[in-house]
Design brief:
Elements: H1 18-21, H2 28-38, E1 47-51, H3 57-62, E2 67-72, H4 75-84, E3 89-92, E4 104-109, H5 119-131, E5 133-141, E6 153-157, E7 166-174, E8 182-192, E9 198-208, H6 212-222, E10 225-230, E11 241-246
Helix pairs in contact: 5-6
């Protein structure tokens, strides 16, 4: 999703497994909360740009309220999203450098922003959001962690398909060097084909983690009026901090 390296198998050859790895039903609550924040821009919010849209799971819910344009770096993930969201516009591009030559009422960047592993990467993604955000519009960023909230952890997931396919996975998050701007997540996937055969795939993802002060400074430097909103969730996890950029209305 977003600006991740293309060598991540999860977003390439394994993309067809995405609906079982991360079922769309799991996105309903967080997408509903994101919609309320996206609607906080001045004036009516109709057209929304999502950077790093991945398999389109958020779009399944957001498209009921907004006309969505979806951007992702992975063509394989875009193919998953097109099947779910054929009415949405899809473009393959990097969230750091894409320029569509138009603005939107709001810009949404879900956890694909985690693949911004340096401050310069994050600055470019925020600048992309700013240039695509209309006067009075809002940009919403949803990183999984900040430097203040990150803690080593592990989580399990996966589901089964109707044809006998199934996935189970372990994600193990840790930080080999707390002084830098990134952490590691080790993923181990067990993939079961319809014939019952099972294979194992392991890969490592490097994810960015930045302090609140960095987020607020970069949003301000881009021209946004920055703010932080605490997520409302009933899931058994700590709520995330959403970073909000409001583009000042033109005088």
């Amino acid at each position: 999703m977003g600006a991740m390296p293309t060598e991540h198998r999860l977003y390439g050859e394994l993309a067809r497994w995405w609906p079982l790895i991360s079922p769309v039903e799991e996105y309903a609550e967080e997408a509903a909360f994101a919609a309320t924040v996206l609607n906080s821009g001045s004036g009516r919010v109709r057209e929304v740009l999502e950077l790093g849209s991945g398999g389109g799971s958020n779009a399944v819910y957001l498209k009921a309220q907004f006309a969505l344009t979806l951007i992702d770096l992975s063509e394989d993930m875009l193919a998953v999203s097109r099947r779910l969201n054929p009415e949405c516009a899809h473009h393959r591009a990097d969230m750091r450098t894409v320029r569509l030559g138009r603005t939107f009422d709001a810009v949404f960047v879900h956890d694909a922003v985690d693949y911004m592993t340096t401050e310069d990467d994050l600055r470019q993604a925020i600048e992309t959001a700013f240039v695509h955000c209309r006067s009075g519009g809002v940009a919403v960023f949803v990183p999984d962690n900040t430097a203040e909230t990150f803690a080593p952890s592990s989580h399990l997931g996966g589901s089964d398909g109707a044809n006998g396919e199934g996935v189970r996975f372990l994600g193990w998050e840790w930080d080999p060097e707390p002084a830098d701007s990134w952490t590691l997540t080790e993923y181990a996937f067990l993939l079961r084909d319809p014939d019952g055969s099972v294979r194992v795939v392991h890969e490592t993802h490097r994810l960015g983690v930045f302090g609140r002060d960095v987020w607020l400074r970069l949003l301000s430097d881009a021209g946004f009026e920055p703010a932080i909103i605490l997520e409302e969730t009933t899931e058994h996890r700590s709520p995330r901090e959403l970073f909000i950029g409001r583009r000042p209305a033109a005088l």
